[in-house]
Recover the amino acids of this structure.
């Protein structure tokens, strides 16, 4: 297809709509679900990148936000180490070949809303020992990686989920660089990699790791052979690499965390596109062992996706409805449960969720960090905006939230922004500053 034809088709797709956004209530345990509306051309509206120009995101009264670090190389997920150092995974994975002309054009349009920076394929360490909100030390902690995303620490073992393998590295407290090669714990499904991110978390006693693996398509248009070991969460023995499917039918589980109040595993999941601007709501859910969550045959329990052939009614009959809708196409990419009143009593029980932002609807949605209050281990109430302002007054995006992490030592919430390539730090304004971390001398792993 010629450049002129691509441009013309892009203009058509940019104006295409499969029905206007109707403002349905799609947040909470029982979202409004309109009729499925499949059309030749999907709704596409991309927020163009803009600059912060000295401004910062907006936070609630009583909180302060600072840029902990800037000029990163596509920051995705973060891990706060026991001494307060912060690891940031930076990278961009490869996607699957486009199948249809509209896939090509949609890819071009969606790319306009991304940073032009090349992914770093590395992990960067940030150190803010005096907790003033600006990292005074920054080192390349591990480089030469393959689109790293999920991070977890078990004792003195650091685990990194590349797009194609789970790796283990030896870690020493206070270390600022690792130069030894990572040991492969297990390969991760990476054929095609329509969804390349590999979310990662560890259970409380460190006996198991959990990896979120996204689908290789939107709604199984590549056939189910391409979806082997996809759209699920693996449970992995960190010592042997042995793994099993823990839960299935999760189209793209992009972040995992354990609720400290109950010990349950939870995930945020990006649902399917191209059946209407208000289908299907992305969601936050507990991940139940052995449960099937519908993809690709159904959504939100037993609602059939008629595009999928052949159908599997026997699976749909046991499909579990997610716990909590976040809104359609908000692209939830971050999840962090509160660790007690680190950010004050109002934010002591619940979860922060990073919403990267929509493309498949007329009215831009997401582009913020929300707080989901919990009570008795379950979501209790509507999402509360916590960090906003990523969209400017003209509908342009100055930033796009990805991972979120609690810093219990610095009493802060951390936000990875992969558009402005910033890690933001949100902390209570009047809370006494934490004492500077007592760190051992900086060391490098030279092969021990």
């Amino acid at each position: 297809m010629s450049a002129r034809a691509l441009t013309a088709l892009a203009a058509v797709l940019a104006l295409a709509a499969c029905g206007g956004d109707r403002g349905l209530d799609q947040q909470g345990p029982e979202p409004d679900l309109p009729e499925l509306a499949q059309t030749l051309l999907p709704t596409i509206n991309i927020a163009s990148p803009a600059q912060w120009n000295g401004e910062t995101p907006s936070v609630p009264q009583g909180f302060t936000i600072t840029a902990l670090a800037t000029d990163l190389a596509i920051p995705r997920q973060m891990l706060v180490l026991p001494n307060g150092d912060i690891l940031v995974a930076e990278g961009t994975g490869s996607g699957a070949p486009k199948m249809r002309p509209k896939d090509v054009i949609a890819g071009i349009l969606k790319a306009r809303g991304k940073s032009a920076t090349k992914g770093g394929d590395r992990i960067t360490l940030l150190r803010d020992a005096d907790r003033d909100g600006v990292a005074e030390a920054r080192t390349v902690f591990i480089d030469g990686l393959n689109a790293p995303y999920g991070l977890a620490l078990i004792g003195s073992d650091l685990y990194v989920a590349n797009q194609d393998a789970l790796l283990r590295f030896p870690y020493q407290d206070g270390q600022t660089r690792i130069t030894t090669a990572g040991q492969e714990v297990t390969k991760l499904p990476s054929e095609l990699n329509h969804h390349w991110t590999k979310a990662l978390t560890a259970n409380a006693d460190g006996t198991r790791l959990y990896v979120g693996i996204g689908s290789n398509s939107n709604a199984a248009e590549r056939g189910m052979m391409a979806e082997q070991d996809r759209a699920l969460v693996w449970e992995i023995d960190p010592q042997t690499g042995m793994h099993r499917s823990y839960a299935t039918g999760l189209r793209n589980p992009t972040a995992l965390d354990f609720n400290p109040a109950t010990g349950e595993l939870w995930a945020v999941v990006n649902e399917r596109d191209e059946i209407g601007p208000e289908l299907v709501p992305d969601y936050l859910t507990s991940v139940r062992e052995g449960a099937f969550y519908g993809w690709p045959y159904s959504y939100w329990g037993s609602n059939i996706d008629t595009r999928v052939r052949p159908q599997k009614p026997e699976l749909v009959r046991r499909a579990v409805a997610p716990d909590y809708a976040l809104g359609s196409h908000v692209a939830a990419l971050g999840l962090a449960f509160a660790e007690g009143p680190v950010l004050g009593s109002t934010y002591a029980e619940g979860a922060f969720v990073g919403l990267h932002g929509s493309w498949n609807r007329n009215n831009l949605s997401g582009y913020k960090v929300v707080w989901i209050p919990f009570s008795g281990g379950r979501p209790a109430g509507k999402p509360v905006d916590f960090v906003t302002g990523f969209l400017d007054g003209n509908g342009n995006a100055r930033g796009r939230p990805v991972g979120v992490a609690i810093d219990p030592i610095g009493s802060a919430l951390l936000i990875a922004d992969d558009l402005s390539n910033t890690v933001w730090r949100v902390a209570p304004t009047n809370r006494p500053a934490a004492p500077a971390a007592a760190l051992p001398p900086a060391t490098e792993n030279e092969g021990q």
